[in-house]
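Q: I'm building a small set of examples for a reading group on sequence design. Run inverse folding on the following structure and report the sequence directly after it, with nothing in between.
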């Protein structure tokens, strides 16, 4: 998840999940890995980028449609992870869904 994704030509959608964690691991890492693995198998999934320091985590997932985002939100395993996030893993979080209309890349 530490690679800049090569996304297709716009338009497509980005889901930006920003979070502040609670103390302790409590199975978070294993669940995060499982969610990326499951999401990558969903129709419409284009990729994911993620970064975290000791205060803030940001994960951006890319999707080809709003319908694909909605289907992922309603996936049964993802619902369990969302509930655990609210009860155990996150002190606070925000979720933003954006339509990507333009992009550019630079690489040395």
């Amino acid at each position: 998840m530490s690679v800049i994704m090569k996304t297709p030509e716009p338009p497509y959608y980005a889901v930006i999940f920003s979070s502040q964690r609670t103390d302790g691991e409590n199975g978070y890492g294993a669940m995060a890995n499982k969610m990326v693995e499951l999401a990558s198998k969903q129709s419409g999934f284009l990729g994911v980028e993620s970064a975290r320091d000791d205060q803030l985590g940001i994960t951006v997932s890319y999707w080809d449609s709003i319908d694909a985002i909605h289907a992922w939100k309603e996936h049964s395993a993802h619902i369990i992870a969302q509930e655990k996030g609210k009860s155990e893993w996150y002190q606070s979080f925000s979720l933003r869904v954006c339509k990507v209309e333009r992009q550019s890349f630079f690489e040395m």
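Strands lie at 12-21, 45-52, 57-63, 90-100.
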